[in-house]
Amino acid sequence: MGMVIFTKSGTFKPSDYSLRAGDTVNLVIVGGGQGGTAYDSSAGGNGATSSFGSFLTAAGGSSSSEIYSPGNGGFILPAYGISDSRGNEEFNGMFAGGGNGTTFSDTDSVIYGGNGYGAGGGGGSSSINDGKPGEIKFGSAILTDSSVAVSVGGGGGGGVHVYRSSGIDIAGTAGTTSNGGTGGYSDGIGGGMGGYNNKKGSDAYKISGSYSGYAGGGGAGGCVIVFW
């Protein structure tokens, strides 16, 4: 059995793997995860769509998407399964998961992102604000002699809410097929960067300032797995 994993966008050339026109390959496509929402309107950025040419496409996680897996967990390669666990564990040397969100106050409270490719980032204030995971699609394709364009969706950046008299809400930006989205930022509080290419979504952070608030973690990047 042969297998190739794309964690960034690229090209699948059948002849590179001794495959020919008419051969069938099996596919697992995972969209990028949404960044964690900090509070109210400070939404996490959407994950980007992943695809294997025109054969199969998996949408990125977004506020309007269905929950494609339990909790905000993503796709775990070694088990070929879906994870609902949290904590950004490492599986067979591949580090993929959503970043952790944090409530920044006198006693900081961490909300963990999900494990796996396409997992959502942790919410800034509670688990109900976790980013939605990217869609996970299974399928197959009958190859031609042509190369296939492979797109891998990056995770979205985490949103930020800073306490002031009126409050400030800054959404994270969406992931793309070449990188993760950027987290919101204000008054020294930042949302996590979306993950991409085996780099997990980063955690929310605070570097300075007297303001308290919430910040979401970055969503995990997706992947495209081809096996035969």
Summarize, please.
By secondary structure, this protein is mainly beta. The chain is 0% helix and 29% strand. Strands 11-10-19-14-15 form a five-stranded antiparallel sheet, with no helix packed on it.
Strand residue percentage? 25-35%
Count of discrete alpha- or pi-helical segments spanning 4 or more residues: 0
Span between termini: 6 Å
- Supply Rg: 18 Å
Order of helices and strands: EEEEEEEEEEEEEEEEEEEE
Query: How would you write the strand order of the largest sheet?
Result: 11-10-19-14-15
Largest sheet: 5 strands, antiparallel
What's the pLDDT, averaged over the residues? 88
State the low-pLDDT regions, or none.
none
Can you give the helix content as a percent range? under 10%
Number of strands: 20
Structural class: mainly beta
Global shape:
elongated
Key traits:
29% strand; elongated; four-stranded antiparallel sheet; 228 residues
Question: What does this protein structure show overall?
Answer:
By secondary structure, the chain is mostly beta strands. 0% of the residues lie in helices and 29% in strands. It contains no helices and 20 strands. It has a 5-stranded antiparallel beta sheet with strand order 11-10-19-14-15, with no helix packed on it. A hairpin with a 5-residue loop joins β14 and β15. It is elongated and about 65 Å long. The model has no long low-confidence stretch (mean pLDDT 88).
